[in-house]
Amino acid sequence: MESTFIIEKSVVIVAVFALTMLMAMYSTWAERKVAAFLQDRVGPNRAGWGGLLQPLADGLKLFSKEEFFPNTPNKFLFIVGPGIAMSTALMTSAVIPWGDRLHLFGREIYLQATDINIGLLYFFGVVSVGVYGIMIGGWASNNKFSLMGAVRAASQMVSYEIAMGLSMIALLMMTGTLSLKEIAAQQAGLNWNVFYQPLSFLIFLICAFAETNRTPFDLPECESELIGGYHTEYSSMKMGFYLFAEYANMFISATLISVLFFGGYNYPGMQWMVDNVGVNTANILGMLALFVKLCFFIFFYMWVRWTIPRFRYDQLMNLGWKILIPLSIINIVVTGIVILRADIAAFLGF
Amino acid sequence: MSGILITFCVLAFITVLTAFLTIFSRNPIHSAIYLVICFFSIAGHYFLLNSQFLAVVHIIVYSGAIMILFLFTIMLMNLNERHEVHRPRITRLGAIVSFVLVCVVLIAIFINSKPIVGEYDATGEDFQSINVLGKILLNEYMVPFEFASILLLVAMIGTVLLSKKEKLKK
Predict the structure, then answer these.
(1) B130: closest CA among A112, A120, A183?
(2) Could you point out which of A98, B6, B72, B93 has its C-alpha 20 to 30 Å from the C-alpha of A55?
(3) Is A307 helix (H, G, I), strand (E, B) or coil?
(4) C-alpha A254: how far from its chain's center?
């Protein structure tokens, strides 16, 4: 492997890492601002202009807090829990195409950390591992509220993963590939998947809310019943890791929704821009387009959080198992019939 | 030593070590966590063999679903050292016999499939890619594949039935 390739990929990986961290940081600020807006308040406005330095102040506060350990025989697992949550939240960004390509220093640079031909499966693999962070941390806290939160989180995430995977199958039957780069490239122009698979998009969106433990599915940490859920016993930066991981997950799932259903970096007239203005300008605009789309979905997460109240636990399970899974199976069957309509018509003798 | 050999040695060491720790650790939750690490290192072996699909599916199914449910049940039942049941000798003997039988079946599979694998090697196609894998599964091995899925479906319906039955009795 040539060294320039390694350098190029390292730069992309570091940039994606920095972007994820920055977005997770400013999501906490945006969340407070959106909450304030929806509740007719001002929100944070002391640190910096419009409270823009608030995340830094929060981070400093979390770092300087006392490191508290509950009375637990599993100190190691107690520390490992937030670590797993954070690292799985950061690993998912590896397969996301942030743009098509740039021409720099006489090289074509693809704006993706790695393009494996099973990109989407990799995403599901990492997401399913993410549950361990919450489960191990909640169990090692040696506190019944933490354990309840952890058990809730695990059952919720496992249930919604099924509907999420099934909703993806209908999309994959159309795209015929698991590589996120190809899926994004297929949606050039306004050929977005959401127009062909609206039901699949809806199911995926709902499941993404459940996977990231956001309201209305935030039962693992519902304050009124479980104090703080799985992170009740956590303090200082270990709790910061859990909170950060949630925002990082939110950012990644917003990006994935934009890439899978809303054309990713594509915008109307991108081909024209490539032909007439230049590859670099066109693709930087493409990255901006992806950024706008994912910002909208992050805003959507917050909008829903301050609009819809929390579900009851049995409602959550009923929605997952009795509504979303059958719906996504019907969606698969309908998609199959539509794809094979010519063959079926020929078979029936039309 | 080449890099791949070193990676293989490290992975094999982790796999065997965590497999033994799974059996020997007293706390059921620690056992389960060691088993998860064991599964991950097995996925690493698949990556070394360049079969990304198998590795990721292994992680999704075993680490991501089955072991989470395992851990879930152990946490819910709150098992610890005190609840450890004493296993009679006949059970241990049965376990050893069934393990040996599984070994025989696996060796038979490997010996029988070797010529077929050689044939696939000769065609020069990339059998790690999911496109080729899907075509083979649904053309050449259509019947066994469908049988396996029917078996899974039956098992699933059976589980639902078993859990429903208790409710009817009440």
Answers:
(1) A120
(2) A98
(3) coil
(4) 5
Q: Which of B16, B133, B121 is nearest to B8 (CA)?
A: B16
Q: Tokens at residue A126, please?
A: 């990492």
The ipTM value here is 0.80
Q: How confident is the model at residue A191 (pLDDT cuts 50, 70, 90)?
A: confident
- B102 pLDDT exceeds 90? yes
* Interface contacts A/B by beta carbons within 8 Å: 59
Range of the domain at A93: 3-43+65-348
Query: Chain A interface, mutation test: which of B29, B66, B68, most A Cβ atoms within 10 Å?
Result: B68
Q: How confident is the model at residue A311 (pLDDT cuts 50, 70, 90)?
A: confident
Measured between beta carbons, the chain B residues lying within 8 angstroms of A117 are 52, 129-130
Same structural domain, B72 and B110: no
Boundaries of domain holding B169: 128-170
Total structural domains in chain A? Answer: 1
* Residue A56 resides in a domain: no
CATH number at residue B76: 1.20.120.1200
CA atoms of A217 and A209, how far apart (whole Å): 7
Q: Is A59 among the domain residues?
A: no
Which residue does chain B place closest to A124, by CA atoms? B60
> Distance between CA A348 and CA A341 in Å, rounded?
10
Instruction: Measure in Å the smallest separation between the Cα of A215 and chain B Cα atoms.
Output: 23
Residue pair A200/A328 in contact (Cβ under 8 Å)? The answer is: yes
